[in-house]
């Protein structure tokens, strides 16, 4: 069976990691490995993991490099080991025993699907994950079948949710890894956009089920920084769009600045977030433009059948 690596970025997730990793290790699939990347946790989670799960491979980052680059550390390791599929799994999830085999089946049956989501439910298993429901509702057949309680093996989605992403190695080889500029939030949406522009389908395999806690469902527990990143990175995502011209991106950025409102933010707090966002974007503008230019090259190469090695920077014909 196809080889899979399940990558979990651990950051102050002591409260989650036991349930998460215990469920992963109980997965009913013979050819997978679990890999944990500790992102300089300060809550004792890494030490607990070493004691509780000594056979699980762990990479320790000396500093918190963010969710995007933390995943990249694990992705590079899995690619170097020749793994065929990679799963990026949040620490605040719990999986079911058959979750992985259903994802592999859906991927093997749909070779043009580059990124898949399982069916994401809330942590209490009482309803669908809120963000996943919004994605599912954009596919009429998927919405209808979910309502009827009889979902099929695969449905197209406009993008995947980052709580549990099943990705073909070729996606990373062709369009690159997560962009560390995001640090956290919107990095998976950015990857999905690049994959779609390169010709991959994004979809859901709802016979695979994962439960997710989701921090944004508990706004009282969201830090100021988390809220700021969720605001700032939407603007970064808009400006960096490799699928259209830079001037169009700038106009879209300006339009977003004038019209975007965020639930739970007063006008004063929104103004503070926006001011800091614009300062950050101005400081990193030329880096953003360079990243966008490189992404456009990779997407064009992917369309023409060139595979880029994310480890070495080399290109080779498929």
Brief sketch in words of this structure:
The protein is of the alpha/beta class.
Compile the SSE list and pairings.
Layout: E1 4-10, H1 14-25, E2 32-39, H2 45-52, E3 57-61, H3 66-80, E4 85-89, E5 93-95, H4 99-109, E6 113-122, H5 130-136, H6 140-148, E7 155-156, E8 164-168, H7 169-175, H8 187-197, E9 201-212, H9 224-239, H10 246-259, H11 267-303, E10 306-308, E11 315-317
Parallel strand pairs: 1-2, 1-4, 2-3, 6-9
Antiparallel strand pairs: 4-8, 5-9, 6-8, 7-9, 10-11
Helix pairs in contact: 1-2, 9-11
Keywords:
two-stranded antiparallel sheet; Spore Coat Polysaccharide Biosynthesis Protein SpsA, Chain A; 46% helix; nine-stranded mixed sheet; globular; alpha/beta; 11 strands
Q: Give the full name of the CATH homologous superfamily of the largest domain.
A: Spore Coat Polysaccharide Biosynthesis Protein SpsA, Chain A
Low-confidence stretches: 311-318
For the report, how would you describe the main beta sheet?
A: 9 strands, mixed
Percentage of residues in helical conformation: 40-55%
The SSE order reads EHEHEHEEHEHHEEHHEHHHEE
Radius of gyration: 19 Å
